[in-house]
Amino acid sequence: MKLLAFETATEGCSVAVWVDGDVRERFEIAPRRHAELALPWAEQLLAEAGVAKAQLDAIAVGRGPGAFTGVRLAIAIAQGIALALDRPLVPVSTLAALAAGAPSDATRILAAIDARMGEVYAGAFERRQGELVAVSTEAVSPPGAVALPDGGGNWHGVGTGFSAGEGALQGSLGGRLVGADATALPRASDIARLAATAFARGEALPPERVEPAYLRNQVALTLVEQQALRDSR
User: Fold this and answer.
1) How far apart are CA 66 and CA 82, in angstroms?
2) Which of 22, 85, 133, 196 sits between 20 and 30 A of 127, alpha carbons compared?
3) What are the residue boundaries of the structural domains of the chain, listed by start?
4) Residue 174 clears pLDDT 70, i.e. is over it
5) Taking the domain 2-94+186-232, which CATH number applies?
6) Backbone phi, psi, residue 185, to 5°
7) What's the CA gap between 147 and 21, in Å, rounded?
8) What does the DSSP 8-state code read for residue 96?
């Protein structure tokens, strides 16, 4: 199986190619350079892997949540390639990809991304028999409003949400956390790994059916308003 994956929802820009379990990746913390880097990196990685675009089985993409422009860019690039090649698209939660990058011995993981405006995007996950399973609804909220599922502690935190508000999230969860990596960013290599599993389960979609997960209502409202303006012309 061959996949091309994109993740640009945060300041980290990354592209990966999955070929039958082998992953090649380009990653760089490159604010405002995602559009410049993503496609050239994809071409380079495919060439290094000896894979022609026509040989790809699917395109994978980090669907958000994250920075509005970054999420929108990844979706647009992935949809464009998938439509041009007539291939399906596999959307993957950016928070799930972040959680997948947690230490291998972490079985309960809270992934959180700094959403600015005094809020964080957060989602809780567990590793069960080698698979990552969401155990909460992804949401955007102030750090102090993030709640973990019942069942005790031993949660490992990952993501920039743990540095937001001077570490307010880590402070509010107290003893339920065994540690937190506030520097962790989602990566396309983890998008590819999760997408390969999702593809095998038959979860790939036609490109036009994939939508970004912004989470913030005001962003969704803006899109509705923009469509209404286009329809009125």
Assistant:
1) 22
2) 22
3) 2-94+186-232, 103-181
4) yes
5) 3.30.420.40
6) -130, 150
7) 35
8) H
